[in-house]
Design brief:
mainly beta; two-stranded antiparallel ribbon; about 180 residues; 7-stranded mixed beta sheet
């Protein structure tokens, strides 16, 4: 899965003077906020660091896509996914993402999750599709991709709380701050 449309949530002030249009991204590149262009991968990325997640009483082991390259590469070129395996995309901040499955031969299901770990939306993704799957919610901070139909098979729906092996999503993914000085 690729975060192709993450820039859709970017805000622009109408009163600001018009900036010259950004240079077009090279062929095969995806544009992200601030005109960062990254090339699409040509092969599957190596297995990423994993973390156990609990969705209600169901356990899944998720690879963590954190960097721009990992987010773009996602499940591209992967040919299998275990029944209780997935990939958790950490989007960095709440947004209204649009995703696609270009170069992904697998049908997938995905949960769009808010900053507190609550599933807001569930979507199915067709294999190798450039059709964008947009969130309706504007406060999605995580996307969990699984094998197609996983959420339905495991009776997981909207409103389910997702926790990690380290606690809640805020406890796990919010940077710790030292004492004020």
């Amino acid at each position: 899965m690729v975060g192709a449309g993450l820039m859709a949530g970017a805000c622009r002030k109408e009163a600001a003077p018009a900036a010259p249009p950004p240079a077009p991204a090279p062929a095969g590149a995806v544009a992200f906020p601030r005109q960062v262009a990254l090339r699409l991968p040509t092969q599957a990325q190596p297995k990423l660091h994993t973390m156990k997640l609990w969705l209600g009483s169901e356990e899944i082991t998720a690879e963590l896509a954190v960097t721009a390259e990992q987010l773009i590469g996602g499940m591209m070129y992967r040919t299998n996914i275990g029944e209780n395996a997935g990939m958790l995309f950490l989007l960095g901040r709440p947004t209204q993402p649009t995703l696609w499955t270009k170069n992904c031969p697998l049908a997938l299901s995905g949960a769009y999750i808010d900053p507190s770990g609550i599933i807001l939306e569930l979507h199915d993704f067709q294999p190798d599709s450039t059709n964008l799957v947009a969130a309706t919610a504007k406060n999605v901070q995580y996307v969990l991709e699984t094998s197609h139909g996983w959420f339905e098979r495991h009776h997981i729906g909207q409103g389910t709380l997702v926790r990690t092996e380290h606690g809640s999503f805020p406890e796990t993914f919010t940077p710790k701050r030292g004492p004020a000085r």
